[in-house]
Specification:
Strand content: 15-25%
Number of strands: 10
Distance between the termini: 57 Å
Subcellular location: Membrane
GO molecular function, one term: kinase activity
Radius of gyration: 51 Å
Helix content: 55-70%
Structural class: alpha+beta
Order of helices and strands: HHEEHEEHHHHHHEHEEHHEEE
Largest sheet: 6 strands, mixed
Number of domains: 3
Pfam families: HATPase_c (PF02518), HisKA_3 (PF07730)
Keywords: Kinase, Membrane, Phosphoprotein, Transferase, Transmembrane, Transmembrane helix, Two-component regulatory system
Protein name: Sensor histidine kinase
Strand order of the largest sheet: 8-9-7-6-5-10
Shape: rod-shaped
C-alpha cells in the first residue's frame, strides 16, 4: 500500500503534475466537444437555411413559368453540395407530411463508441436535433425545410476525436512525467548534500559545511546551516572549556575535603581509639565491668575509621600518574570486591599498554569507571559487574591512531532514571566530551545495562596486547 506521507518528493510532485495534466486534458476534451457540438449545430442551421431558400426559389420558378407539373420539392440540388455522412434533408408540408427526404449513410469503417460514452454524450448534447426553417412563398408558409444529422454518426465522430486526443495524451503524459521527474531530481540533488551535512552534525562532526548552491532557497538553507554549525562548534568549545574547569574544580574540592577529613576526623578517631585503649587498661585494674563499654567504644571507632578510609579512597583515589591507569583500576575493583564481600562480584579485563597515557586521560577514565561502579553497586542492585578496558589500533593515517575502548556491563535494574540518567551519567558524558570521545548507555528491557566509552589517544610508540590483566 502506498504510503503518501513518506513518499519521495520527486514522485509526489510528478504525481501532482500528472493529476493536473489529466484535469487539463478533461477540461480540453470538454471544450472541444462543446465547440464541436456548436459547430455542427451552426452548420446544420446554415444548411437548413440554404435548403429553405432553394425550395422558395423552386416554388417561385414554378409560378413564373406557370408549370404546375414541375417536381417540387427537388432536394437533389441542395444535397449534391452539402451532403455529408449521416446528414438528412427533408421537406415537411404545413399539414406535417414529409414529401421528400434524402439521407446519406454513415461510414462503415467508423468504430462504434462505448455504450457509456454514447449515453453520456447524448445526455449532455442531445445529438440529432432538427434544424427547421420555414419555406414561404408570397408571404404564405407552404412548409418547412428540415435538416438533422444521425445521432449515431455524431456520437461516433465525437468518440473518434476524443480517442485521438487521449492517444496523444497517453504518449505525452509519460514523457512529461519523465521530464518533470528528471528536472526535479536534478534540482533536488543538493538536498542529499544537506542530509549528509545534517547526519555529520548529528554525529558530532561540527566541521561539516555545505557548498554553495545555485537555487536561492537552497543557498539560504546553506547559510543557516553553516552558521548553525559554526555556532554549535563555538558553543561546544566553550562548554568543553567550562567542563574542564568544573571537573578540575570538583577534583580539587574532593582533594581538599579528603585532606580535611583525614586531618580532622582521622586524628579525632585515632585519639578516641587511644583513649578507649587507655580507659580499658584502667578499667581492667580498677573497674572490670567497664571493659565491655571500652571495647565497644574501640570497635565503634574502628568501624568509623574503616568508613572514613573508604570515603577518602573515593574522594582522593591513588595517584594514577604513579601507579598507572591499569593498576589503579585493578585496585579500585579489588577494593569493591573486598567491601562488597563478593556481592556483587566485580570483574576486570585489561588489554594493551597504558603507561604512556596523558595524566588527564587516565584521571578522567578512572573517575568514569569509579562513577559507573558506584551506580551499579549501590543503585542498580547488580550481582555481577564486568569491566573491560582495551587499547585499540586504528588507521595510522589519522591524527590519533589509537583509541581506548571502555565497556562496563551489569545485570542490575535498568529502570532508575534519576541514577542512570541523572548527574552521574551527565558527569561521565562531560568527562568523555572533554576528552573528545564518545559515550553510549543502553538499558535492556529485562535486566542489566551497558556503558560504552571510546576515547581517541595519540601514543608515540606502537601499541600491542603486551599486557593482559584479569581479576
Amino acid at each position: 500500500m502506498w504510503n503518501w506521507s513518506n513518499s519521495d518528493l520527486k514522485v509526489r510532485l510528478t504525481l501532482r503534475v500528472a493529476a493536473v495534466s489529466t484535469l487539463c486534458l478533461a477540461a480540453i476534451s470538454c471544450y472541444f466537444l462543446i465547440d464541436s457540438e456548436h459547430t455542427v449545430r451552426a452548420r446544420v442551421e446554415a444548411i437548413a437555411g440554404v435548403t429553405a431558400r432553394t425550395l422558395e426559389l423552386q416554388q417561385s420558378k414554378i409560378q413564373w413559368v406557370n408549370n404546375p407539373r414541375s417536381d417540387f420539392p427537388d432536394l437533389d440540388a441542395v444535397a449534391a453540395s452539402v451532403m455529408t455522412s449521416g446528414l438528412c434533408l427533408a421537406f415537411r408540408t404545413s399539414e406535417g407530411d414529409v414529401r421528400q427526404r434524402i439521407c446519406s449513410g454513415a461510414q462503415s469503417d467508423t468504430a462504434a463508441p462505448p455504450i457509456a460514452f454514447a449515453a453520456l454524450y447524448r445526455r449532455l448534447f442531445d445529438p440529432g436535433r432538427e434544424a427547421v426553417h420555414p419555406v414561404t412563398v408570397s408571404g404564405n408558409a407552404i412548409g418547412e425545410a428540415v435538416v438533422w444529422i444521425d445521432p449515431a454518426v455524431l456520437t461516433a465522430g465525437a468518440w473518434h476525436d476524443a480517442g485521438r486526443l487521449m492517444a496523444a495524451f497517453a504518449i505525452a503524459l509519460p514523457l512529461l512525467c519523465a521530464l518533470v521527474y528528471a528536472a526535479l531530481a536534478r534540482a533536488l540533488r543538493p538536498t542529499r548534500l544537506i542530509c549528509d551535512g545534517l547526519e555529520r552534525i548529528a554525529a558530532n562532526d561540527l566541521t561539516a559545511r555545505l557548498p554553495p548552491f545555485d537555487l536561492a532557497e537552497l543557498s539560504a538553507i546553506r547559510d543557516v546551516f553553516n552558521h548553525l554549525a559554526e555556532s554549535l562548534a563555538t558553543a561546544l568549545a566553550d562548554r568543553n572549556e567550562l567542563t574542564q574547569k568544573l571537573i578540575s574544580l570538583q577534583d580539587e574540592e574532593r582533594r581538599h575535603l579528603a585532606r580535611e577529613l583525614h586531618d580532622e576526623f582521622g586524628q579525632s578517631l585515632a585519639a578516641i581509639r587511644a583513649l578507649a585503649a587507655s580507659a580499658r587498661q584502667t578499667a581492667a585494674q580498677d573497674c572490670p565491668p567497664l571493659l565491655a563499654e571500652c571495647d565497644g567504644i574501640a570497635r565503634t571507632a574502628a568501624g568509623m575509621m574503616e568508613t572514613l578510609r573508604g570515603a577518602l579512597f573515593r574522594l582522593r583515589p591513588p595517584d594514577v600518574d604513579e601507579l598507572g591507569l591499569a593498576a589503579s583500576l585493578e585496585g579500585l575493583v579489588a577494593g569493591w570486591n573486598v567491601r562488597s564481600r563478593g556481592r556483587p562480584r566485580f570483574e576486570i579485563a585489561i588489554s594493551g599498554t597504558f603507561e604512556r597515557l596523558a595524566s588527564s586521560i587516565s584521571a578522567n577514565l578512572y573517575r568514569i569507571v569509579q562513577e559507573a561502579l558506584t551506580n551499579a553497586a549501590k543503585h542498580a542492585g547488580a550481582t555481577r559487574v564486568a569491566l573491560r578496558l582495551e587499547m585499540r589500533e586504528s588507521d595510522p593515517q589519522l591524527s590519533t591512531p589509537c583509541e581506548i575502548a571502555l565497556a562496563i556491563d551489569d545485570d542490575g535494574r535498568p529502570g532508575d532514571p534519576p541514577v542512570k540518567s541523572g548527574m552521574g551519567l551527565l558527569g561521565m558524558r562531560e568527562r568523555v566530551a572533554a576528552l573528545g570521545g564518545r559515550l553510549s548507555f543502553e538499558a535492556g528491557h529485562g535486566k542489566g545495562s551497558s556503558l560504552r566509552v571510546l576515547v581517541p589517544v595519540a601514543i608515540s610508540q606502537p601499541v600491542g596486547a603486551a599486557a593482559e590483566y584479569a581479576a
